[in-house]
Amino acid sequence: MNDNTTSTSEIVSVRLTLNVAYLLNGEPAQDMITRLQRVCEHAIGHGMLTGDSAAEVDEYTIHVSVPPAPLPEDAIAGFMRQRIEDGNLDAEDIPTRLARYGLMAPDDFIA
Predict the structure, then answer these.
(1) pTM over cut 0.70
(2) Cα dihedral sign for 48, 49, 50, 56?
(3) Spatial distance between the Cα atoms of 61 and 3, rounded to a whole number of angstroms
(4) 48 partner at 20 to 30 Å CA-CA among 28, 82, 85, 102?
């Protein structure tokens, strides 16, 4: 190790979820999406995620978008019923699938 090399330290990945409901007052929604993205990038670039610590942001991803509307309960129930009736979901597998679907992010389930 030379003077320009730092020791490898522990890396931890964390997730911050921020949901914002804007009252637009005539502003375009896309402008607000862009502004929110820029504010997050500014916070990262100016040490606002590490504060007064020796920690550094190693990697990050930002995805700012308008989430899809949630599916109505009857649509989800119909989807599950159709899978059972078509034989694509065994009765023994239903508890596992329900747990898996319940733990999924809503966007992943919709996809």
Answers:
(1) no
(2) negative
(3) 30
(4) 28
Which residues does 68 contact at the CB level (< 8 Å), separation at least 6?
106, 107, 110
Query: Is 8 a residue whose pLDDT tops 70?
Result: no
Amino acid at 46: H
Contact present, 49 and 18 (Cβ < 8 Å): no
Side chain identity at 95, as an amino acid letter? P
